[in-house]
Amino acid sequence: MRTKSLKKNKINVVTLGCSKNVYDSEVLMGQLKASGKDVVHEEEGNIVVINTCGFINNAKEESVNTILEFMQKKEAGDVDKVFVTGCLSERYKPDLEKEIPNVDQYFGTTELPGLLKALGADYRHELIGERLTTTPKNYAYLKIAEGCDRPCSFCAIPLMRGKHKSTPIEELVIEAEKLAANGVKELILIAQDLTYYGLDLYKKRNLAELLEALVKIEGIEWIRLHYAFPTGFPMDVLDVMNREPKVCNYLDIPLQHISDSILKSMRRGTTKAKTTKLIEEFRKAVPNMTIRTTLIVGYPGETEEDFQTLKEWVQEMRFERLGCFTYSHEENTHAYNLEDDVPEDVKQERANEIMEIQSQISWELNQEKIDQEFKVVIDRKEGNYFVGRTEFDSPDVDNEVLIDATSTYLKTGEYVTVKVIEAEDFDLYAEVVK
Q: Residue 42: is it exposed, middle or buried by C-beta count within 10 angstroms (0-12/13-18/19+)?
């Protein structure tokens, strides 16, 4: 029988899924640290908290596999306790308790106080903005709202995150000021739906007013917008983007599809004509804006004709940034009542075709950048290169700028002006001008 060591408990937080989960893990770690706990992110620890994702099949599999991996470590005596939180346990708690019963405890997405109590810590409401950030020191995510009121047929987020709930502007300003004081220079605004921000609190869409407050914070150089919804987009945001140099000329707006019949079945509340007009309005209002979108292929009933419509539209719109996912049939969503009738291999072929088109578009757009100068932030050093981004690129998902580290010395978080000397489909090679 193994004897308990007298070692001090170290809590290892493991994060799976999207940037919203990264943010939640950081809040959890901030609370634990304030209670005097020894907490690390994805390092060795004898107590493990797994913050899971339950969005689509691949993410669910990864979450389950991670739980099983740590259960083996627990059985081998390498860790003492395993707690599971986040979207997967919010959505499937009874199933998980039955299938993997030797997890010490499962918690949903709104049960932070209970999780802290189980870890021997107290939830302290006054810790607004006190987070242990896990991203590189120069940028951080700022979650401005939780949940979603949209009725999209394919999406399980409202099941896991509940109704839309905006965070008051004054609280977000306090949080952003604390981040800036810790050296954060770029805020990436995230929510399930940025477009809806403020409707519940202020009875109007208030994203523009929030941006006006955030640009006043000293030390913040860039503010980036992620996950806007096309229907009801507050156009006054574009005025702020044009007027305020700190607000990046960048918008992430997942459009999902463009065929009218698919959009209707997806319950997106828009049409091909309306979506095309919206993108044209964006580009007219902010001529050098970079638009990132994501698409879903293989949705139930997607015909070859629907797919051709999508393909032609992608070629026509020439999005600067684009990602494509295959449809995942999720129980308890509206689309689950439909037959998942597009074979997996066809879904994958369609996704590959879209990404090939996008790769060519990206290559062509990048060729136009050769000999141009851009302001770049340095995120990290990798091999013989410093790796940075322009204001038109978000971390992890977009293009990167590579600068020869053998001839130049740069620091992480430094902003420099570079000239592009060579371009590939998703990478730019550049030299420092100043």
A: exposed
